[in-house]
């Protein structure tokens, strides 16, 4: 109830996306099957897309140095780096988990990313395969908080903010046991009570659009804890729980309504398109990028 | 955090399910493909299952009178009646929505159900097909609350409590825009502040197991607002968003932990098995029922 009261109350003026795509970023997973990271960077630069958010596996395939060089030469900005996390694990694996996450921080810093996105992991057996099976999601949540806490120092030294991404509850078991914006902000409050800017939230509308508390929790974020903003759409019906995300405008998410709230609390960063979709992966990269641009201008 | 503090704090003693299945109920959708309602009632009675929760479409197929007669003759109890709801709709359809729901109340009363389970509906175009498309989930939620409020009088006259079933957020668009126990209880607080017992919650673990607030919200329910308790399991991976629910014990839900909390707050009703599953629908009815009995005793 009162879902739409906040933006109006705050007198928000939506940034105008219709005239150009200066606020667009492409998460490189959106076209990961059409080419490697260097090809994606080149295609984005050609399409005058100003920013990307690359994935670790795509960086690893071409090598960190070549990725850094390509980003620098094209002048692309980053809107984030995907991803750290997967904290729940057997005790024997915790050193490995921390090492892995420290490397993610260092790569993000080398690439000039504004934040490292954390997909925190679900139950240990899925988060770090080989870990003993558990049904204790409360325990997994405690491991996540411990893991983020242990990473904060290294991230601060690298000057790299950490952005906790709440994932849709349908991924609670196997991908992320942080499933609401409120839960992510509770972690921020406990680990960074001073709101230093070192810890915040990556808000992906696919994951959070359904949340009855969404508008209130966006207000609670404020601009200092809203580190990334991801868009796509929620299709009905959805053919696959993982790889059937929709292009913006093709689903049921009230994209402009939510952006109005995000901007009302002060967000001025990129609108990043992240679409995992067998359909969009099957189309030519240029066609996907031009569709992202058109939809960004028309419906985001 | 503190996920498991409540049951211990309350000194809960779990009811012993291991020796018999006197607390078992079968939601008849679990074996809906293997036979009609009369066949299901007969099979449940043969297996000495004490209770069922039938669906409206199954009742309609055999006729309400025959269903009532079969329930009476076998001495089966009911743990609920599925389902009313689907409130969001175009204004022109609101009379139809109320009529439909009043009939559901009357059928539940005729069958001697202890409550009518409400699956409240999502966006109007999915809740009542033909309604104008909308992306306003806040508006749909307001329609749900209005619809329940309008039904309460009729339900009270029929002596039929209404049980709001929060559905998993992955069904927010097309099936139910009430997606957490907290949200259902907020509606109860507003529409029935006196806690008359006329309005409460149907807690289905498939839908709510992931919720970081689950234990706190169960405590908030109390026994007077906890009207039904449904179990199955959450499989990883899940082949299908609708029809791949797991048999208890085959997935990741901490069934005994959650039941401990439910019983700690005073719940003493049936544990109802509701499984939508292509796999279990493909097996003989007797085999499914005997598996439900065995798992009820071993892992629920």
From TrEMBL, chains A, B:
SUPFAM superfamilies: Xylose isomerase-like (SSF51658). Residues 51-284 form the Xylose isomerase-like TIM barrel domain. It comes from the Bacteria. Signal peptide: none annotated. PANTHER family: HYDROXYPYRUVATE ISOMERASE, XYLOSE ISOMERASE. This is Xylose isomerase-like TIM barrel domain-containing protein. It comes from Ancylobacter defluvii. The lineage of its organism: Bacteria, Pseudomonadati, Pseudomonadota, Alphaproteobacteria, Hyphomicrobiales.
């Amino acid at each position: 109830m009162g879902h739409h009261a906040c933006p109006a109350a705050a007198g928000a003026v939506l940034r105008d996306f219709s005239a150009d795509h200066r606020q667009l970023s492409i998460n490189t997973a959106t076209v990961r099957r059409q080419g490697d990271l260097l090809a994606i960077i080149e295609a984005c630069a050609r399409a005058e897309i100003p920013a990307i958010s690359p994935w670790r596996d795509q960086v690893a395939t071409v090598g960190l140095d070549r990725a850094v060089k390509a980003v620098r030469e094209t002048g692309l900005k980053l809107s984030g780096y995907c991803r750290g996390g997967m904290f729940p694990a057997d005790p024997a694996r915790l050193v490995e988990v921390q090492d892995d996450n420290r490397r993610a921080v260092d790569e993000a810093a080398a690439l000039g990313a504004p934040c490292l996105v954390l997909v925190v992991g679900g139950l240990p057996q899925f988060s770090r395969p080989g870990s003993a099976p558990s049904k204790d999601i409360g325990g997994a949540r405690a491991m996540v908080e411990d893991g983020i806490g242990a990473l904060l120092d290294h991230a601060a030294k690298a000057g790299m903010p950490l952005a906790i991404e709440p994932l849709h509850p349908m991924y609670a078991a196997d991908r992320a046991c942080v499933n609401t914006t409120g839960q992510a902000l509770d972690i921020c409050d406990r680990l960074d009570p001073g709101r230093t800017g070192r810890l915040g939230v990556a808000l992906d509308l696919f994951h959070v659009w359904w949340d009855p508390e969404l508008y209130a929790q966006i207000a609670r974020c404020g601009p200092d804890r809203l580190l990334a903003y991801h868009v796509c759409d929620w299709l009905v019906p959805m053919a696959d729980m993982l790889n059937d995300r929709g292009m913006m405008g093709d689903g049921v998410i009230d994209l402009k309504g939510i952006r109005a709230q995000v901007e009302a609390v002060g967000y001025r960063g990129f609108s990043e398109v992240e679409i995992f979709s067998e359909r969009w992966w099957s189309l030519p990269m240029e066609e996907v990028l031009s569709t992202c641009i058109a939809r960004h201008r028309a419906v985001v």
